[in-house]
Amino acid sequence: MASSSTLNFNLVMLLLFFFFVSSSSSSSSFDRDFSIIWAPDRVKILDQGSQLQLSLDNTSGSGFTSKNKYLFGNIDMQIKLVPGNSAGTVTAYYLYSESEQHDELDFEFLGNVSGQPYILQTNVFASGKGEREQRLFLWFDPTQDFHTYSVSWNPQHILFLVDGIPIRRYANKESLGVAFPNNEAMGVYSTLWNGDSWATRGGLDKIDWTQAPFLASYRNFSASSACVVNRNVHKCKQLWAHSKSNSDQQLQQEQHQSLDWVKKNFMIYDYCTDAQRNPTPPPECAFN
Ligand SMILES: *[C@@H]1O[C@H](CO)[C@@H](O)[C@H](O)[C@H]1NC(C)=O
Ligand SMILES: *[C@@H]1O[C@H](CO)[C@@H](O)[C@H](O)[C@H]1NC(C)=O
Ligand SMILES: *[C@@H]1O[C@H](CO)[C@@H](O)[C@H](O)[C@H]1NC(C)=O
């Protein structure tokens, strides 16, 4: 009896090793791990694959996606945003499942005229439904250095983090009938494009094309504890349910504090408190 459960345990551990460890590599390589999906002539891979640069000019933006698709895990990317007069530019960094009822987790960086602050807009789509925007100012200039933008995604919740500091939580409230992204694997995407009809001061500040090309840079991608999905989402979910990382997913006290700190000092828009759009706050709002 004991040996059969030991065997079972070993098998699970072996599969976990295969699924989880295979996904985290110590150094990211943009040639190996990503594909260019928009305007290859405007995408540069530098330093033996350790950096990628997107560009936008008056004829096109550009974009890339990961070769792997992920379900759950900690997914990090370091990004340095378009410097100088970036008004009207949008750098979108997101997880996305290509399907009709798609899931999507968005970081959208809205540029600004020189010296004025970027806005970071986040959004969550689950089963095709979005309209869950939050907007905040950052506590640093995101164009001076690389900063780490992360998604920590497990069956209980999704945390958005900036340099390891949680800025947003989306709890799993399927129990209240709110959709949660856990049925579809998502790829990692980023695109740089012209959003000057809406992005900066609601569209008042247009792109100054004399400043083109606009450049955003990426490095140090990592997907740790992520389940790399090659079609079999179900198996990934089962493995995740067995995994130890499932056990300590309670939101830590300091995470609560940082969410409060961000809300109090940096948040400028929250769909949960937009009484015009949502006279009754959506049910998940009470838990996030
Ligand atoms: C785009 O920019 C290039 C370089 O500045 C310029 O030569 C060209 O005329 C511009 N094209 C359009 C359609 O504005
Ligand atoms: C740009 O700067 C203006 C003026 O400080 C500010 O109102 C706006 O929120 C900033 N960001 C964007 C993306 O519009
Ligand atoms: C991030 O990437 C840079 C080069 O692209 C490298 O020098 C640095 O060590 C990396 N940092 C981490 C934490 O992996």
What does the model show?
By secondary structure, the protein is α+β, with helices and mostly antiparallel strands. It has helices at about 1-20, 30-35, 235-240, 255-265, and strands at about 35-40, 45, 50-55, 60-65, 70, 75-80, 90-95, 105-110, 120-125, 135, 145-155, 155-160, 165-170, 185-195, 215-225, 225-230, 265-270. The strands form three sheets. An eight-stranded antiparallel sheet has the order 1-4-14-7-8-9-10-17. It has a seven-stranded antiparallel sheet with strand order 2-3-15-6-11-12-13. A two-stranded antiparallel sheet has the order 5-16. The longest helix is centred in the N-terminal third of the chain and has 20 residues, at about 1-20. Residues about 20-25 have low confidence and may be disordered. One 2-acetamido-2-deoxy-beta-D-glucopyranose binds next to strand 15.
